[in-house]
């Protein structure tokens, strides 16, 4: 299995380009199932999860061509509406085919995603929302069996549905399902993440009638059919945030191209509180900092957008473990998203956990060691720690990283880091 070997201590300087957002690309690829003519995407990141999603869609009969960041998907001839366990177990986001399959074909058989390292992550709200639209759904042998054959013209019916928790993919699944339903659907307590907004923009180009996206009440008026369109995936705010924290920790001056500060208000606010200088224009962000010894530790509390994103929690913990002072990091979205803590303790971090809050005392340095990646963002946080640790840090199981970061070591090394991939 591949490992990353990092020599710590280098400052980061220069500029890199941020890729398209993984968490926008995945739902948008699945939205291709709704269209009767080809969907043409650009700025699609070359990530394992993107590859897995494309394989899943091809398995259903979609014709997909990939040239660099451009992906064309033709779902005019879908032969089966099944997402098998062996594909879903590798990527929970496969649940995003459920809504489109049910909306367009009236039938779907999707494996229940297993749990994952950061939490049980049920999909009960996805299922309840589809049932509110009239779908008949039962779970057997670990599969979600859904049908609309008993409904008027075999179509989902518009409904008003209040989501008990803010769910990103739940909102996306139900928005896709509602786009071809009979009548009007109102989703209350909807997610406002930029990736939800980007997906809605793509659906609208395909002919969907959606209003209110980006607020907590989204209204969708179902239409007869959707067609292909052209769409450029929004930039990845979490990738951008990760490189901003890396630069704050190592010190230096870095400019991120294809990055939008308006998607990162809460993160940029915290970086400024820590003492970094952050400036931006329409599609770039520049950060300048003196390194972790001059940073002030900041308190973090994750919550749905526009509050501080859970996908940036581990990265800020990596910063807090070497910043000055004591800080609290509270995770309110997932029940087990502190897997990076014990790995950071191996590097010399001083962290104690009390329920969903970690108390972090900044230490004056970290010692390189061998650590293990457990989930995508935890892996990223260990890379950040390795960039500033004394000596060599080896990160094992970095397949987690490859799910969400395109060319990570190339981008870091182009800024002056010393990161090698070995197997
Ligand atoms: C999306 O996951 C992202 N993934 C996650 O990013 C991100 O951490 C998460 O949203 C929160 O922002 C993609 O978009 C592909 P949720 P999702 O449904 O949709 C509970 C990364 O690192 N819940 O918003 O699966 C759930 O257990 C990944 O890029 C239910 O209880 O997250 C969690 O506690 C990690 N029932 C909370 O809601 C449901 O039916 C939020 O989950 C759905 C969710």
Task: Describe what this molecule looks like in 3D.
The chain has 423 residues and is an alpha/beta fold. It has helices spanning 22-31, 48-59, 85-88, 98-105, 124-132, 168-179, 194-205, 237-250, 265-274, 313-320, 339-346, 376-388, 399-402, 408-414; strands spanning 3-7, 12-17, 39-42, 63-67, 70-74, 82-83, 107-111, 136-140, 143-147, 160-162, 184-188, 209-211, 217-221, 230-232, 252-257, 277-281, 284-289, 300-301, 326-330, 350-354, 357-361, 370-372, 392-396, 419-422. It has a 4-stranded mixed beta sheet with strand order 22-23-1-24. A 4-stranded mixed beta sheet has the order 2-15-17-16. Helix 1 (22-31) runs parallel beside helix 7 (194-205) and helix 8 runs parallel beside helix 12 (376-388). The longest helix has 14 residues, at 237-250. The termini are close together. The protein binds ligand EPZ.
Q: Helical proportion? A: 25-40%
Distance between the termini: 5 Å
Spans with pLDDT under 50 lasting ≥5 residues? none
Classification by helices and strands: alpha/beta
Bound molecules: ligand EPZ
- Into which percentage range does the β-strand content fall? 25-35%
**β-strand number:** 24
Question: What is the alpha-carbon Rg in Å?
Answer: 22 Å
Strand order of the largest sheet: 22-23-1-24
**Global mean pLDDT:** 96
Q: Helix count, per DSSP?
A: 14
**Given the C-alpha coordinates, what overall shape results?**
elongated
Largest sheet: 4 strands, mixed
